[in-house]
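Recap slide: Two pore channel protein 2, sequence and predicted structure.
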Amino acid sequence: METDSLLSGSLDGASGEYGSRTGSERGGAPGGRRMSDSVYGDSSSVDREPGDEELYIQQAVVFIEDAIKYRSINHRVDAGSLRLYRWYYSGIIQWGLGLTIAAVLLLAFAERPSSFSISSDPRHRSPAWQPPCGLTESIEMICLIILSVDVAVKSYLIGWEEFGKSKWLIGYTVVILISVMDWVLSVSMVCDEKLRVRRLLRPFFLLQNSSLMKKTLKCIKRTLPEIASVILLLALHLCLFTMIGMLLFAKNENGEWELHFRNLPSSLTSLLVLLTTANNPDVMIPAYSLNRCYAIFFVAFSVIGTYCLMNLLTAIIYNQFRGYLLMSVQTSFLRRRLGIRAAFQVLTSSSSSSLGRYIPSPSSAHVQTLSACLQLDLLKAFNMSPCILPLQVAQQYEDVGFMDREQFTKIFDELDKDCIKEHPPLPQYSSPTLQKLQLIFSHYYLILFGNAVALANVVCICTVLVLNSEKSTAERDNFVLEIINLCFILYYLFEMCVKIFAFGWQGYLSYRNNIFDGFLTVLLLALQITIFITYRLPYSQWEPSAHGVLSLWEMIRLVNLLIVFRFLRIIPDIKLMALVASTLLDLVKNLRAFAGILVVVYYVFAVFGIWLFEGAIKPPDSSVACGTYEQLEYWPNNFDDFGAAIILLYDVMIVNNWQAFIDAYSRYTTEWSKIYFVCWWLISSVMWVNLFVALILEVRDSLDAVHAHCLPWVPCLCREQIQEPTEEELVCQLHQHPHLQLQW
């Protein structure tokens, strides 16, 4: 789960004032430091004695954890709140919160109208399973209770004064309250209500739980004015050519009027679809068949609209989002520096000499230093990273005894470096024969030979499939294919065993490729044993349609699918392919927020679609026109349940033949239904797809520096592009902390 800040991306805490300090005030005289914890955001404070070393260390540990996870440090810092804070951000709690949000969103598939049917085609659809009243409502109420606890804990940790400044937390609270009221109404009506308003609000839970999605929404909001200007230009272009088309293609002159320019809505729809090229060249054929000069109208419309204005929109979005990822990482980097600086200040400002002290520098100014032994204890206090580099750097200062602020910060710069995973040592064998075998089976050539065997297996499967492509499952003789698969699976088992012999269990499992390989090998072996138990040993003229748990053909097909999937093991061993695959993985990591926003948009439009069009289309008894929704048999694409609505929206987003859906729903409902589909096209296909392309270009440009030292939290952005925050900025942020007041 993504780490989320409590203040929705804001680094600023409550406003605070600080004046100039004299040297004695900053200088570490006993009692010269005072910290106070505000209680519930009021002016009361609790003085802490200088001897509270355990609390100081606990605060430093939490601040460092905040720095590592890029969280805001603007939260309560008293002992009880710190324990609650660490519990809240523990892995199991965050995973539980993520599962709760997922459960709330997935309820739409089970709620009425249920998506639990094999087919969504109304001609063949069996009655879907409808959950009894109270089942989904009980699950939903449990989830709402958990989310209520979540917002209460967040609000307490940042303080009620900060809660009043956080629009996201206020919205979170309002959405929960509306959901509870709608839930009560639903239960009181025995689940027979037509509209469930809370279904429309559920995606908000996903948005508020992701800081990346919040940042993305902010960037989209910033881009909207220029996007709106281009869309307005597109609308003007569309209206202008619509009027020209209605003048050119008048009634009784040709078939173009009858099919595409009968009236204003029909003309607008035809040219809008042409803008997406979905009905090209169908829309111009009636006129073009009479006079080739009519093609000029349609070509001019497409060149200006599709190739100029639409690509201009992509360029504008890209221009607005240039540097978006860099700004996001800059904010995260500032949070890391602020958390580390806060931890250092908490420790060194203590009057206890065992934690920190002041030493004179050559410039006669006082320099704060920290005990190196204490730093080692801090690094060992929590599992900050699978990498041990920070601990190794900290041990270098152990002999000196103390480290200054720059040295303290430098230790955590090691987190930005890639960790080299150390594999367990090879097992030791006393026998010379076993040692030679171990050398052979651990050699890289064995991996290359295994890849060649996997390629040969895939080629054999392809050959058999080509030979049997014209045969039905009843006519196929799977004896040869089963014998071939058996031989290859035995080799895979042999390869796994000798690798375990050469590397040992721990060494074998320390390689991800081996885990992938071994899992599929064990699965293939289990399926093969199941086939033997069910259908005995291979023999000629096996009956593929014979049924046990699965038919023989289904089992063999599953085995072949796993073998083909296992062939992906060659990707890490081909350098260029591995680079492309790693780039794709980086894209997936960096674009998760945009995928999440797309999920939110899909969810909202699917709910609206069910409200507006559920059960609108019925299979007709009479003949239908060619090229229509009915003739193309698009019956499974409907708004009769949530699952079918998601697929229909995906089909419209692809814009291939989307005019069939617009035409069908305008005929079965009203012409105003076109507004729904046009809005979906604008948001999904025009805005989001162009946004996606722009971000891929942004990420790809940054990947050109892949060989440079890069930050791990966004692997594609290089450290040289990140600006180091100044000491004044960090000190100002610390003075504005709403719950931590330091005297320097």
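Confidence is low (pLDDT under 50) at residues 1-48, 351-366, 383-389, 705-718.
The beta strands are 356-360, 366-371, 402-404.
(End of recap.)
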